[in-house]
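Entry 14. Ran structure prediction on the chain below.
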Amino acid sequence: MNARIAALGPKDFVMPFGAVGAVTFPVENNAQAREQAQAMLKENFAVILLHEALAPALAPIFESVQEQPTPCVIALPFIEPSTGQAIQQLRTALRRATGTDIWDAAAQSPQTSKNSPDASASTNTESK
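Output, structure tokens:
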């Protein structure tokens, strides 16, 4: 299988992905992104990486492939502060793939709570 990866977003977002072999689709606005996203769905990409800021505008386009194995559409935060959309989308995809919420499982893990900064802070407070 020839698994191709594509990156969609502003030029400074897609450029690093092109350096490692992804097919890049630089766009300057939501209208260009919507047009390009529709064309990308016809090209059999295994993975489509998109700039997090474009995710809300492109959700209706990629909604039709969410239940399919490919393409795997992943929104990624970039230089701007994250809106949380990328993490929520990844969390949903992982829950669908594994049947469990990995974030909740990690938060409830005893090992995770021992190593978390909050746990050590509360331990230090209690010993004073």
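Residues 112-128 have pLDDT under 50 and may be disordered. Will compare against last week's run tomorrow.
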